[in-house]
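Q: Sequence in, structure out?
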Amino acid sequence: MAYASLVGGAALALAPNTRHLLLRPFVRVSVRARACVLPVVATAAAAAGEGGSGRRYWRWSKADFFPEPSFASWRSYGGALAATVPRLVDRVGSRSSEAAEAGTLRAVSENPLRRCLSWLDLAFLGFGSVVGSGVFVLTGQEARFDAGPAIPLAYAAAGFSALLSSFCYAELATEIPSAGGSFSYLRVELGDIAAFLAAGNILLEAVVGAAGLGRSWTSYLAALLGRDTDSLRIHVPALAEGFNLLDPIAVVVLVSTSAVAMTGARLTSTLNSLASVVGIAIIAFVLAAGFSHFDAGNLAPSFFPFGAAGVFRAAGVVYWSYTGFDMVATMAEETKNPGRDVPLGLISSMSSITVVYCLMSLALVGMQRYTEIDANAAYSVAFAAAGMRWARYVVALGALKGMTSGLLVGALGQARYTTQIARTHMIPPYFALVHPTTGTPIYATVAVTLGAACVALFSSLDVLASVSSISTLFIFALVAVALLVRRYHVAGRTTAGQLRTFLAFLALVVLSSIGVSAYYNSRYARRWPGYAAFGCGWAAGAAGLAACAEKQRAPRVYGAPLVPWLPAMSIATNLFLMGSLGTAAYARFGICTAGMLVYYVLFGVHATYDVAHADDAAADNLEHGKIAAAPTATTPA
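A: Exactly. Output:
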């Protein structure tokens, strides 16, 4: 009885601000099943109160992976599957809270992530994670096959969209300083289903992005050694094209950088800052040497050999090169002053990176005609063609440095994403555990690294880039929607009429944005009436939000400017760039999304349902204990 009282009280105290947001369960679990959740709640309560559970970090058991009552036995799991529909309905209507995402859920990790980063650290982390994964990897590929000499415009378009997204991220990161980044923002503002789709795409992006950098590292190492870019890979004719060049070097690089990231955020940040200084010097050299060999004739006879469609198609792919900035948002939990440091770090790094990308891509197409650019090691080969054979080694070394920094920072951010997702039990909570000595989520880091290593061993860069870009664009569009929801809707305060007005104009913005993208990729793309109609629809939606919808909340520390226009434009640009990607990218995206939904139905919905109703289960179990212990007419008191 005393045990039940203690655990029941702890369960009810864990999430006092979130319980009212949850719907009552449609299917009652058995008393035996309810009891299974109590040790989990007790552990979380102990961790929250004492800063650690006292359990060994290095452990491996079924209870660590599947502590929820739905997975206590095959019979329990069968009962959970039978209740899938009402549980899905329950989760659709649920939203998390800021207190849960930035506070209560941290207890699942048993040990805290350490606050040790400043805005300058974040700026260098943003710079290190992005520069190298874009210019040195994708510029040659997209200039050669999609944009031609207009590749700087592709970077400008992608950079404009990314900058809009960075403003949205900056506000949400200061309001919800969680390691989950966009996953946490969506879980608070759009609910579990949207957050799960984002979570799946975040993990896909993490694995694919790291794999792409690993393979590019091998290409530039080969260029540094003066060999063909594929010479260090193992050709296996029996495998399909695009998957038949095995890359063991990429696997070694991925494992090595992740091992460094496991040692701690402070050490990784310091190494990245030192490397970034070297990278800035190399970029300055590339720009000076590149423009000294600039030949305007290389931009002729046509600046747009593939038309505007090619520029936007390239913009959709090179958007991958900007994805590192969202890693900065995941470091909010380890930042000394997230309200000030996150916006400064995000916006300063993104602005400078966009300028650098445009200048470096212009230098490349000015040095060498786009038809002669090497798609795998563009800058090294371009300098060799310009008579500066020695410069190719400097460029290759700079590219290796940039990609190594990208892998280091990526290992930090990807593991933080995974940690927060595991804290919610959408994936096993085992991956949320933080090591007590290093203050890092070692299990999460290992999981992402193993996935990336397997993909990097087989898949080519062009296959990886298109999959990663579409996932990134999808998440960034959802984050912009989440910012609008945050400003215009507060549960319990927004009236039904205000909500209907807001949703109507938001739907107009989203549907018009989809319409422009679809129209541009249709056979009517050269006709202006469609653009006018959809453009007016978007403008009417954004103007309606500004004039007719009433804002329900003001940002506490930092607010994105020009709301609702800026997030509405972010939605439009991200959806437009999504539409510019090829059908193969959508096919892969669709297959991956279908797989995510199957996983959610079989596992995610049941795990999150159990956790969401753990307080109800504990309270019911406590009441059952009281009834059992109460004296009756035949039992003397």
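The beta strands are 234-235, 245-246.
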